[in-house]
Structures are given as C-alpha cells and as structure tokens.
Design goal:
By secondary structure, the protein is α/β, with parallel strands linked by helices. It has one domain: Transcription Regulator spoIIAA (2-Layer Sandwich), CATH 3.30.750. Helix content is 37%, strand content 30%. The chain contains four helices and six strands. Strands 1, 2, 3, 4, 5 and 6 form a six-stranded mixed sheet that branches. Helix 3 links the parallel strand 5 and strand 6. The longest helix has 16 residues.
Length: 122
C-alpha cells in the first residue's frame, strides 16, 4: 500500500499552509477533502498548498484543488500552490491549470504573495 501525508499549519496573518506528499489519489481524497474543509472553516484570507517533490496527484486531487480555489475566490480569499517538482508542474501545464492557479516554486514567495493588497486575482 502506498502512503501519503496531509498536514496543515497556521502561519499567522490569516494564512494557512497545507502540505501534501506521497501518493495522493482517489484513496487519499476523503482525507484531503476533510482537511481542506477544516481549513476553509477557519477564518483565512490565504491558503498555501505545498506539493512535496515526488508527490503523485490525479484528477480527483486536481478537482479538489479547483473546488477549493472557487470557494476561496468567492469569499475574496486566495489559494497559492507551492511546487518545485518539474513533473508536477508539467501536469498543471499540460492541463492548462497553470493559467488557473498561482504556482510558486518557493514557499517564501507564495507566503509573500499572500500579503499583497489583491489576494484573489481575477
């Protein structure tokens, strides 16, 4: 059985970090959805989702991330992805989702972007 890890952290200033690693497919989707729902229930203005190098994602995870993005934008909040793995970035590029998500290679840059005056780009 392959494993995965999902954690979340409060970074202060109404910013939450969700870290994902391992094989995140449909079997991990319920745990991921529950964690994201908990984060969305908190009073946040920006959510960072960090995909660790070597993380495996499928369409279920992409769908959850898209749903989270829509929910946050409807509240005037932002979602930033942190991903430096070229294989993961390629998935977002091939699906055209690199034009939908704000993707950063460094956590510090994504965190800095959460401090901008316009947290939810159009």
């Amino acid at each position: 059985m392959t494993g995965y890890a999902i954690d979340d952290f409060e970074l202060g200033d109404d910013v939450k970090l969700v870290t994902l690693s391992g094989d995140l497919g449909r079997y991990a989707a319920p745990a991921l959805k529950e964690r994201i729902d908990d984060v969305l229930a908190a009073d946040v203005r920006c959510v960072l989702v960090q995909l660790a190098d070597g993380t495996v994602i499928d369409s279920t995870v992409l769908g959850l991330l898209l749903g989270t993005l829509r929910q946050l934008r409807s509240r005037g909040c932002a979602l930033r992805l942190v991903c430096s793995d070229p294989n993961l970035v390629r998935i977002f590029t091939l699906t055209g989702l690199d034009r939908t998500f704000d993707i950063y290679t460094r956590l510090a840059d994504a965190r800095l972007a959460c401090g901008s005056d316009d947290p939810a780009p159009a």
